Every structure is written in C-alpha cells, then in structure tokens.
Amino acid sequence: MADFEPGSSFIPALYKPPSLLPIAQHRESLQYAIETFPVTVVIGQTGSGKTTQIPQFLDQAGWCSDGKLIGVTQPRRVAATTVALRVAEELGCEIGKEVGYSIRFEDLTSTSTRIKFLTDGLLIREALVDPLLTRYSVIMVDEAHERSISTDVLLGLLKKIRKRRADLQIIISSATLQAEEFLRFFTQSGDDKSQPAKEAVKEETGTIISFEGRTYPIDILYLDSPAENYLEKTIDVVLSIHEQEGSGDILVFLTGREEIDQAVQAISERSATANSHSTGLQPLPLYAGLSSEEQMLVFDKTPENTRKVVFATNIAEASVTIEGIVFVVDCGFVKQRAYNPRTGIETLTATPVSKASASQRAGRAGRTRPGKCFRLYTEDSFTNLPEANVPEIQRSNLAPVVLQLKALGIDNVVRFDFFSAPPSDLVAKALELLYALGALDEYGKLTRPLGARMAELAVEPMMAKTLLASHSFGCTNEILTIAAMTSLDGAVWFHHDGERKKMETSRRKFAVEEGDHLTLLNAYQAFVTKGKKETKFCHENHLNYKSMTRAVSIRNQLKRYLERFNIPVDDAMTFDPQDPARRTQQDPARKAEKIRRCLTSGYFAHAARMQPDGTFRNVAGGTILHAHPSSLMFNRKADWVIFHEIMETGDKTFIKDITKVEKDWLFEYAPEFYQLSTK
DNA sequence: GAGCACTGC
C-alpha cells in the first residue's frame, strides 16, 4: 500500500436499515441457555442492548419471584447509574423501586428492588458481609473483557461461590472474543488447572451466546512504513482526512495531556491559515485531567460546515462514547501503569497497544455509519502486537487485593483461583507489606481486629493502618481529614489557563511548614469552617469544589467506619495553625508532631532522606527521588520525610504528598521492618 | 525549577 491516501480506498457500504435491536431476536436462545446452563457467556457489541435487555428478560422469566435480586455489575460508577436509569425508564418505574443502583455514597435501592446495578467493587464488599451473595439469584458481570482488578477478583469469587450455591446463575458479558476463555475458567476444576476440562463437563456447565450488534463496516488503513514522529503524522493525517474525505467527525487516540495539547494547538494554527476550505476544523481535547465542563464540549454539536476532531487519551476507548465519529486515528500507544515489586515503585510509560485495544479503538468509528480507521503503524507491527492487554492484576501493587481476599476468608491467596494468576513476586511483596503493617500475622493470617478493620476501610492499607492507629496518637479527627484529602489523588487545587501563578499563591496561603499532609488538612478545615462549604470560597482560593465536597463524603464514610469500630472521633478538636484563638487552646506544634508520628506509623515503608543536592534517596539508598512540583517540599529543605505516593514517569521518579519526620520515629514504629532492610 | 492514561470501595 502506498502512503496514506485517504479517499483512495473508500469502500462504499451497503446500508441496511436496522429493524429491531438485534438482541430481541436472540431472546429465546438466551432464555433457553440460561435455564439450561448455570454459566452463560454473552458476546455482544456495546450498543447491542444486552446490558439493558438481559436483566429484564430474567425478571420476566421469574428469576426474582422468590424475593431474590438480579445483580448486574459494571466497572464504572457512571455506567451503573445510567444503565439503571434507562432500564427503569423502559419498565416505566421509578428509579430505586423495582430497578435500582448502588455505588459508593449512593444507594438507590429498596425492599421492592428486583434488578440492581452496582459497581463490581461494591459487590465484592457485599461479599464481606454475605460471603455467598445469597440475596442474588443471578449475577451478570458486564464488560468483563476490560479485566479490571475488581472484575478479576469477582470472577474468582463467583467461581468459588458456585461450588456452594448450585442455584446461582452467572452471566459473563464481554465485547471481545475472550468468551471461550471465560467459559473455560468456569468449567474447569479449580484444583487442577493443568487438566483440560472434559467436554462433557463443559456441556453441562455453560454455553456461549453471541449477539450480533448493530455495527457498520470499518475500513482499516495502515502506514506502509513506520512514522518517525507519530504526533506530526497525526496532524498530517487529520488534515488530509479533512481535505479528502466526506463529512463526519474525527477521533484521534494519543497517549497523554502534553501530546493532546500540542496537537490541538497545531490544528488551530494550521486551520486558521488554511483558507482554501469552506468548512472549518474544530479541535477539542479530551482527557481525565480536564474539568467536566471542558470534557462536555466534545459532545456539543458542531456548527454547520465544521468538522470536529477530538484528541483523546484512552478515556475514549471505553469510558466515553462520542456520537458521530466516522474517522478514527490510532497512534498505537497507550500510557500504561505498572508496578515493580522489587522497588515498590509504580511506573507510567507509553507502551504499544494490544490487538484487542486497537480493534476497540477502530470500532469507535462505526457506531452510526460505515467508518474508517487510520492506524499510524504498519500492518507488520500490528501483527506483532500482543493479543490482549496484560490484566491489571498482573501489574499492580496487590496489597489491597490480598488484604481483601484474606478478609473474604481466602487464607491461601496463592491457591486462589484467579482468572489470571498474578506473578508470585507481586503477591510476596503484598504479603510482606501487610505483615509489616500488622494486618497479617507471621502465618499470613488476618489479624483481628487490626487486619479485619483495615480491610473494611475504603482506603489503601498504609492509610488504613494510619487511621486505625490515630486514636493512640490523639489525632483521629485530623487523620480522617488527611485520609479523605489524599484519596482525591491530587485533584485539590484548580486553575484555569494562565492562572497558575495565582493558584500557587493561593496554595501558599494554606501551606504548613511540616509538609503536604498538614497543608491538605489546613485547606479542608478552611473549606468547612471559613468557606462554609461554598463554591465562592473555592473559587477565590483555587480549590476544586467538586473534589472538596467529595472529600467531605469520604471523610464522613470513614468516620462512620471508625464509629462502628468504637473508635471515638472528636470533631471539635481541630488543628489550625493559622487561627490564634486555637493556638492558645492547644499547641499546634505538638498537635502537628502527633499527626506526623501517626503518619510515620503507617507510611514507614515510604520514607526518604533529602540529599545536599535537594533530591531524595529511599532508605535502601539506590533510587534517586524527586519531590513532585505539586509538593511543598519541592525546593525546600528537609531531612527525613515520608510520602503518600511514588511514581516513575519519563526518566524521573517523583514522590508526592510529603511530610517531614524524624529518623528515630521510623525505628520506633517499624523496628522489624528497618532491621530487615538494613541487613 | 516544573507535571499524571484510567477505574473503584
């Protein structure tokens, strides 16, 4: 094939008017399958109606007659709510009655609920209280092909539950051709994975049903030689699509914010100077870091004679669907997170996409009519891509997962029947940390009450430990706030274009000498007291209002957990180094020390020491760490510190949310840990 | 002196 010639290989498509949603035709075979086999794998494109229709069929077929629920899990909160709303509408009932949903902070279900949509993470938490999920007659795991950690854990749990509950109907729904793999997982015996499942067993246990989605043909084009610079190539291709192709919007997949902003700028400049065309090109960015208002712009209808080109990250691969996309440009890369169990450092690196990912991206072009996908790599490179993404559970810090499994009664995590087993060094690293935190004893058993309580708290293990230790340090109230604020993952401060300096000034107003954790505490307390939780206060102080209200919710939820554990929380005892009235009541420096000591008792594994050159070294000494520019410790003097997060991006390793501590405290709160690692 | 794809309890 010659170099890109959009227009040269256009395939005229035969337009077939869709009669009914295809799933209606498959209703009978679905009902037969579900009544014959305990496990059904459903293949169907997004938009085939499987998510909304299947639960209704099941309800009509009497699966809720004995007061049991049909549970449908989703990997994302928005999906759970929007799908629930649609099904309620289709059934003509009020949301929360017969059809409801349950996500963190929002439970819209009642005693009359028969169909319940929920996130898979929440269903796992329900299993902590009701290990056999006895309230459900059917569980449908939707979007299983996305292979999130929660989905993978849930699949393992469901397989285990099925051995004790023959009456439980399981439906796995997936968009790709991993169906055989899902079915094999549920049909083979968990004790001997080396033996292929006997056909007879397979026949009795499960079946696969395919729902042909309403899709349109997509013409896929490759480069004939690799692009030297895919960003430049992207701009070229977008411009030539605009000049040579018929109408339709363009979706471009890039890897991150920087690239996207560059591309948007390049297109604005180039289309401003290109006067030849009657129609304009409107470039729009789409990535998670944008405010929701900015994100919403991609859904706006373009003016007459204007073609929309959306430059997006992977957010547009599964989470966000934009109607009217006819052309897709795929750079072939994605920024992927991985975890190095040896160093305990997470990395974020651009990696080639998988074939599954590439076809998902291409599929975004054919939702409303025939489309085209321009892959900015050769057909040869495509052939060499991995079939599927490495599942998240095989490249993450597993401490939260292992703790959760232990709390679910799975003592031998290594023998747990994972859909994809995580590498043993990841599991070992997680066990090591959980032992150091006191969540597990020397036999690897969950400790009580500490480990069990840590598993219940909706924060990561190190923060859970900090929170549960806070009472003995006399700073529960403050740690609750810090836990809530660090859960926001950095979305605290907010600024519009060109206002970064102003934001920095605002942030300095809340700055506390001891570090970021106390600064976050300070900002939160100003928000709830001086700011009276108002948007105006946030605006003036460059705080993200949505994040701050979320922090209030998270804090309340965590507080309720502590109260359930009979850990007293005194909301009146607030720390405020800037309020002179309080300063006389209690010595803020002493309070700050309690908080810093308490943080050390949970974050001792995240300690570092500043070097004369201003960079940090971890305790082992081998890794050069940099204070992230968002940290107060960026360009400030310190000695020993603990930090909330560590991540390697590009060629640097950054630490974020940093607080000054004393070296002695590390030995005081984690003697065993530091003895071991200094050997 | 400078930056992070995405999701979830």
TrEMBL record:
Record field: transmembrane: none
This protein's UniProt keywords: ATP-binding, Hydrolase, Nucleotide-binding
GO MF annotation list: ATP binding; ATP hydrolysis activity; RNA binding; RNA helicase activity
Boundaries of every Helicase C-terminal domain copy: 233-409
Name the record gives this protein: RNA helicase
CDD domains listed in its UniProt record: SF2_C_RHA
Record-listed E.C. numbers: 3.6.4.13
Highest taxon above the source species: Eukaryota
Pfam families xrefs: AAA_22 (PF13401), HA2_C (PF21010), Helicase_C (PF00271), OB_NTP_bind (PF07717), WHD_HA2 (PF04408)
The Helicase ATP-binding domain, residue ranges: 31-195
Gene Ontology CC terms, in alphabetical order: catalytic step 2 spliceosome
Keyword DNA damage: no
Keyword ATP-binding belongs to the record: yes
